[in-house]
Design a protein that fits this description.
heterodimer, A: alpha+beta, four-stranded mixed beta sheet, two-stranded antiparallel ribbon, 8 helices, 10 strands, B: six-stranded mixed beta sheet, five-stranded parallel beta sheet, globular
Chain lengths: ~260, ~800
């Protein structure tokens, strides 16, 4: 059994459940994140959309993405995708950094939050970004330091909700124990199906951020849900390549836990 | 609102029209979401597919300025298809009232129109009275001259073809909306309307709302949970400012500002105190003198006595027939007739229609006091685009003031809830709370008047009771108590003994003889000997969301007004699952009483349990002289029934509903800066203005917030893909939007969410811009969209018509 820390099993830790069918794109979450983390505003211009900043950056951990389509009945549909780090249970960015920058990416044992430390600077920023199937980490120009959503782990450890969840007025953003969020997601999907027959859930298998989408993920955003890593490899395949499966992980964690108790 | 925010969750069908609630009242959307979770449906009707539309069960578009056509079609549908709640309409509204023969409507004009004065003689729109002076009525709604038959006749022209050709809304969409919404006419079902500036900012603004009020009455949606006519106010405390009546035509509590033709208090009270001969009508405004005298006692204290008419002669008077509204102020200012101006917590250089006229008007002032928290286009007007400071004589004083969290006081929300707020931080440097600035200003003006032996008419200033400070600081509690009111001497009222200095428990105890004071009778009950009711924070554990123990609302903490229309004549709720009030015969030791919300008057139900009429009852709509809600509304300046008229600047030459193209009594102005162009090939597109979640009003506060500016950095103009193709404009291109009055540069957002309208066989394009930007900051943000808008407005309220005007667009 390896001494490397493995991300914990799917039953423990926290998760976000984001019900995009309730999201009105008010940007409260985007701005609450900025406020809590005291991130500077970036210079933006209107590029023909309400989506601003246009993308995640070193100073922007959360972006609400806007996508309009012509729906059925010849009426528009407007999809809102509050994009953020998925806090993967088995993060590919961490796998990619183990050799060159051990301790650069850690997983908080209480919540499962995937966190970057200053040891990560030993790694080339681009290599970390390319490992992420969801195109999340962003580097600071000049220094190459990386940043992303921290799950507001400081708030959560003190019994508070992440800032984006606290602020959301409609109940689109939810947060809690992972198994409870899984249950909420499944219930919400069932309720949404009558209005949105094509509704789908993402992330239940191996992430800590689940999205309920009214339609196929690609209609929301290229990286809304991806099974394929940059380089064409399936996430499951990638794990198998290093001799692990998700089921293995779960069993292994339970074994470790038992030993430790 | 007649109802309140949380109540929205009780609705079976929510129509959001003239509002983009998800965008501009994002927290309110929590309650819409809740209603939808419980099976309620959401309909969004808007020229643009908005963030609200993205959540709606059904969306359709209409051309800006055609809401009455749309809603008139719904009225026709409801009547033709018997969707109305018959008992409610016959018993609680004036639909059965017989209208006098002097009332007529022909080809777009109501009877009594004076074309020269551009005014109606409203006395023509009267009811037939019986021998006792009570309006005759036919509860079977059959009489050909009863309101019900007249309204049927009026909207018979509003068929699907005509409505569709006017609004540009496809017929099947109109049908769908009408079907969905009119299901709420069933007993036990409730529909609500959430509306905002999209309805009010038109020359037919008030009639837009009247249309919906009529629909709500026909469907029995007034006074019930999940129903009502719900205005979403545009500022957190504008409801408060409206209630305290800082507009020219009203005094606190919606009393009337006296006119010069009413020289005595008796004449004034007589004119504004309605009378009724119907013993079943509560005619609550019959108490008017109690409120006006109590107000005068608040203003002038001991100086107001019976002998001097309680100081009535010290109140400023309006000249008969003259208006002093926002549009009038800047018209007069433009003509050079103002010396000075307080721009207090506002930014007229960006917020009022026809900004170029406003900005020019400011140059005519000798002085201006700009009370605000940041620099803005008004305070700095003299160095704005096109201005030469050397040629401008205006001396501008900037008084920095505290923001809302830097002072204690109350805020009254759209739902009439007065919620007390505490001070969280000190204002920076020299910034003072507005109350403090006003206190000091008042004291200094009084001192100057005292000092100057030649002061003209000093009594109103010197006799003003001005004692709202504690230790030299404005004391919001003192003011709140004054607003509630005091007993000014030992007195017994309704069998209860009160001492001098006691706070009055409710407006039912106010007197017309000078023994009570109240700076706003509507708020009497908000701060009593029991304490500051607005500061209460007890959450309801279960129920329909009334939260009777959380803060305080007017009147007397009644959460849903007109709630005695939510029960049948026996006092049983129409909706058993969401009762607002119910008559419990066992309550009050067997005497019987209402349970639930504060009833809209404690009188017993109209019928006894055995079906005999109860003479002690009153009709439910107690604020109307005859106790019945107005389907026929004889008090409006432009007619008792809403009628479709085109906006002053419109894209059509003919009104399909009549020969009267525009509102025959809408005000327009005549300086060289007041230009109106209809059907002018230079301005072929409809323009409208709106807001985004991330900014607020003219952006005076929000443009300086980096995180908000980051999310919405620049002025943009939304247009359809078809229009983009027509004008060779791509998404993200810089364009100029121009009207007869001014122009702005904006970024084009070319989108599928806007589509051209088919209006009477022609393709008409519509575009829209937010009005949050100004030249002061940021430099590349763009300027105010009000540079485009016209100085015309509603004849009742004079709110400018900033939602429909004509423009052109071209690539830079």
């Amino acid at each position: 059994m390896s001494e490397r820390y493995r991300g914990g099993d799917l039953m423990s830790g926290k998760a976000f459940f984001i019900n995009t069918t309730l999201c009105t794109a008010c940007r409260g979450c985007q701005i609450a994140c900025k406020q809590w983390n005291q991130l500077p505003a970036t210079k933006t211009h209107n590029w023909g959309s309400m989506q601003n900043p246009k993308d995640l950056s070193f100073d922007t951990y959360k972006v609400v993405r806007f996508q309009e389509h012509m729906g059925s009945n010849n009426k528009p549909v407007w999809y809102f995708f509050p994009d953020q780090c998925r806090h993967c249970v088995e993060p590919p960015c961490k796998e990619a950094s183990e050799d060159d920058a051990p301790g650069g990416i850690i997983i908080d044992s209480q919540t499962g939050a995937v966190l970057y430390t200053d040891k990560l600077k030993k790694m080339k920023a681009q290599d970390v970004i390319e490992a992420c199937p969801f195109n999340i980490p962003r580097a600071k120009k000049g220094t190459g330091y990386l940043s992303k959503c921290t799950m507001c782990v400081d708030r959560v450890h003190n019994g508070l909700l992440p800032a984006c969840v606290k602020t959301c007025p409609t109940g689109a953003m939810n947060f809690g124990d992972r198994d409870k969020m899984v249950a909420l997601a499944k219930d919400s999907l069932a309720a949404a199906k009558s209005r949105f027959p094509k509704a789908t859930l993402t992330g239940l298998e191996d992430l800590r951020v689940f999205y309920l989408l009214a339609a196929e993920p690609k209609k929301y955003y290229t990286y809304a849900n991806v099974d394929v890593l940059p380089g064409g490899m399936d996430r499951k395949m990638a794990l198998r390549k290093i001799g692990r499966s998700l089921k293995d992980l779960s069993q292994e964690w339970q074994f470790i836990n038992k030993l430790a108790s | 609102m007649t109802n309140h925010w949380i109540d929205i969750r009780n609705s079976d069908c929510i129509l959001i029209m003239g509002s983009n609630a998800a965008e501009n009242h994002p927290i309110s959307f929590k309650w819409v979401t809740e209603a939808m979770k419980r099976g309620g449906k959401l309909i969004s009707v808007d020229p643009r597919f908005t963030r609200t539309s993205s959540k709606a069960d059904f969306y359709t578009a209409l051309r800006s300025g055609t809401d009455i056509a749309f809603l008139g079609g719904m009225i026709k549908y409801i009547l033709d298809n018997n969707k109305y709640f018959k008992e409610y309409v016959a018993e609680y509204t004036n639909a059965p009232f017989i209208v006098a023969d002097s009332y007529d409507f022909k080809d777009g004009l109501f009877s009594g129109y004076d074309a020269k004065k551009r005014k109606y003689d409203k006395s023509q729109w009267a009811f037939v009275k019986d021998a006792n002076g009570v309006s005759k009525r036919d509860r079977t709604l059959q009489d050909p001259r009863c309101v019900f038959q007249l309204i049927k006749q009026h909207y018979s022209r509003y068929d699907l073809d005509k409505v569709s050709a006017t609004t540009g809304t496809p017929k099947e969409d109109l049908q769908k909306v009408y079907e969905m919404y009119s299901t709420t006419g069933q007993k036990g079902k409730a529909g609500t309307i959430m509306y905002a500036m999209g309805w009010t900012q038109h020359t037919v603004g008030v009639q837009n709302i009247r249309s919906m009020a009529i629909i709500q009455l026909l469907l029995g949606n007034m006074g019930v949970a999940g129903g009502g006519v719900n205005a979403l106010r545009g500022e957190s405390n504008v409801q408060g400012s409206t209630d305290h009546c800082i507009l020219f035509h009203i005094l606190p509590g919606y009393l009337k500002t006296p006119k010069a033709s009413l020289p005595t208090l008796a004449a004034y009270n007589k004119k504004y105190t309605p009378k009724t001969n119907d013993p079943l009508s509560a005619n609550w405004w019959g108490n008017y003198p109690k409120y006006s005298v109590s107000l005068l006692k608040s203003y002038f204290g001991d100086k107001a006595t019976k002998a001097n008419d309680f100081g009535y002669s010290w109140l400023p008077k309006l000249e008969d027939g003259k208006t002093y509204s926002w549009l009038d102020i800047f018209d007069v200012m433009y003509k050079g007739e103002f010396t000075g101006f307080f721009a207090w917590g506002q930014n007229p250089a960006g917020s009022g229609a026809n900004s170029n006229k406003t900005r020019q008007a400011l140059t005519k002032l000798d002085w201006m006091v700009n009370v605000n928290i940041f620099d803005n286009e008004t305070g700095s007007f003299w160095k704005g685009p096109g201005m030469d400071p050397k040629k401008i004589k205006t001396e501008v004083f900037m008084l920095p003031c505290a923001v809302s969290v830097e002072k204690e006081g109350s805020i009254t929300n759209s739902g009439r809830w007065m919620q007390w707020r505490y001070k969280a931080a000190n204002p920076p440097a020299e910034a003072l709370p507005d109350g403090q600035i006003l206190m000091k200003l008042g004291k200094i003006v009084q001192y100057l008047y005292k000092k100057d032996k030649n002061a003209v008419f000093p009594e109103p200033i010197l006799n003003l009771k001005w004692d709202y400070a504690t230790h030299g600081e404005f004391d919001p509690h003192k003011m709140a108590k004054e607003i509630n009111g005091y007993f000014l001497k030992d007195i017994t009222v309704k069998g209860k003994k009160f001492k001098k200095g006691d706070l009055v428990p409710s407006f039912a105890y106010l007197q017309a003889d000078g023994s009570t004071s109240s700076a706003n009778w509507l708020y009497c009950n908000s701060y009593t000997n029991k304490g500051n009711m607005a500061a209460r924070r007890k959450r309801e554990k279960s129920g329909i969301g009334l939260n009777l123990g959380w803060a305080w609302c007017w009147p007397v903490n009644r959460r849903i007004i007109y709630n005695r229309a939510s029960v049948d004549k026996y006092g049983k709720p129409w909706d058993k699952e969401h009762p607002v009030i119910a008559w419990d015969p066992k309550a009050k030791g067997g005497k019987g009483g209402w349970v639930g919300d504060v009833p809209d008057g404690g009188w017993p139900p109209m019928l006894n349990a055995d079906g005999t009429p109860n003479p002690k009852t009153k009709y439910p709509f107690i604020m109307k002289p005859e106790g019945h809600a107005h389907v026929f509304g004889p008090g409006r300046a432009d007619g008792p029934f809403p009628e479709h008229y085109e906006p002053i600047e419109c894209p059509v030459e003919k009104n399909p509903f009549s020969s009267q193209l525009v509102n025959p009594v809408a005000p327009t102005y005549s300086t060289e800066m007041d230009i109106y162009r209809s059907c002018d090939p230079r301005y072929p597109f409809i323009g409208t203005t709106y807001r985004v979640s991330e900014h607020w009003q003219t952006g005076v506060m929000t443009r300086w917030q980096p995180w908000l500016l980051e999310a919405e950095p620049q002025l943009f103009v939304e247009m359809s893909k078809e229009m983009g193709k027509l004008k060779g404009i791509n998404n993200g291109d810089k364009v100029i939007v121009e009207s007869a009055r001014g122009k702005v540069e904006a970024v084009a957002v070319v989108t599928i969410r806007l589509r051209p309208f088919q209006i009477e066989g022609n393709t008409v394009h519509q575009i829209g811009l937010p009005w949050h930007y100004g030249w002061v900051y940021p430099k590349d943000g763009g300027d105010s969209a009000n540079l485009l808008t016209p100085s015309t407005g509603d004849p009742n309220t004079r709110i400018p018509e900033t939602k429909a005007f004509m423009v052109n667009v071209r690539k830079v």
